[in-house]
């Protein structure tokens, strides 16, 4: 087939990209399907209207080139980092850092949030911002849960803070290095390590104000399935045992509260045959006391990890787990899960206690707590008569939890099933992650190689298993990266990007230098949300230099403008790697990035225009 005029492919490519943006925006079909539709449309276009590479004579828009995004190193790096981040959560490696941050968060939650965003912005100026964001995703997610804040309010600001931090130094982003290398190759001059620091700091300060104070207000809550069915504030009735030599023995109440048990509500203390009710003024706990308390699932998990002996009653005769003759300890095995089950209507368990039904032998699961709405319960949980609608919090092996799906008397709440943190592997997980970051940050290994090696090490050291790793990978990210790279390749080979640049520059040719550099910044800022920021940076470096020479301005200033504009990738999820990284944890849709990113793009454009006028003297 004879190749058609390139302008035909260019205009059809524009139409396909515009249609794809509409599909993403209206959100009527899944993002994965929209991404696949874009890739297939471009494949068909280049099969009907092929383009020959002038240098080699091969087809430029080949099938191999258009689907290369599925094996792109950036995609491999992102997926590997998602697995490593999940391993940090599963292993409990982040529990202690979160506890330290949550301390002041209870009194000044916004101060803690601002501090985290500021740390991310600063670190991203010297480290690859993808692993920086990967580190703080689970930390911010845990902090949001502690502060009763939806993660969708903080994940996009986290990504934006990292992008802004990349403007501080020459190594803050791979795009910075690409532009500097191209600039040196064309002009023979080099950009210094801190050449962009002062204007980048100005942009960072202005952007940080928006990210910290305005962006969270523009975002909407994106509830997870579990939060829609009860959230993290639901409390269970649980028994805590005061053991000899344990953490609670001799603990004295202060102002009616026991230090170390501030996350639970103590409803009564059972001491021999006596029931002690609150308030507990100047009372000390004695070995053998049983505390009947209300606690959230998260609080119970933390107690089991920190002081497992507190829940030892669940493993012995008379505890909420029923009779058990085994000598196993309170901490579960490596393949353990926590889940919630509901007593079904007409269940054979109703009207009977956990001891009477032998719940432990019946299900091979331990009951950690019982939840009954609108009822103040102070009775012994093992002797509590079960009713339809009661929710039991269980701990058991993965196979035993999954086996409850076929139980006629219990309804397994699928969304509630989660792996129990294996905190004994937390040190290994932290070491693997630290080594991975060091290898990537100091350029010893490419980020993709380091991240894939780190993911393999996490799985190999049992910090995370294959099933957990596969659940950490979001299909949206795979498809949207592949589609973005396909669009970028199509724009490059058809000359679409150059066509847009030449048109805009021609329109601004007779304007003042300030108007030209401002218009150039805006053009790049718009295109970087469609193309990748690296592709935009490389494509526009020679254009920036030629425009500067045409109007008699130092090329370095236009190159710096290009560096800043190429990182205004705020308005689409595929504009920057960190946007894709937070998309899954924040449960975002395409329009969430448009809503929060467009104002920031405009702010960055106006701020740089002011910097060009006053700092560079335009």
TrEMBL record:
Can you tell which superkingdom this protein's organism belongs to?
Bacteria
Task: Tell me any Pfam family this protein matches.
Answer: TrkA_C
Q: Which organism is it from?
A: Iodidimonas muriae
Do you know which InterPro entries this protein is assigned to?
Cit_transptr-like_dom, DASS-Related_Transporters, RCK_C, RCK_C_sf
Which keywords belong to this entry? Answer: Membrane, Repeat, Transmembrane, Transmembrane helix, Transport
Specify the RCK C-terminal domain's residue ranges. 224-309, 326-410
- What compartments host this protein? Membrane
Kindly provide the name given to this protein in its UniProt entry: Membrane protein
* Regions that span the bilayer: 6-26, 33-52, 64-90, 111-140, 160-179, 191-215, 428-456, 477-501, 513-545, 557-576, 596-616
Bilayer topology? Multi-pass membrane protein
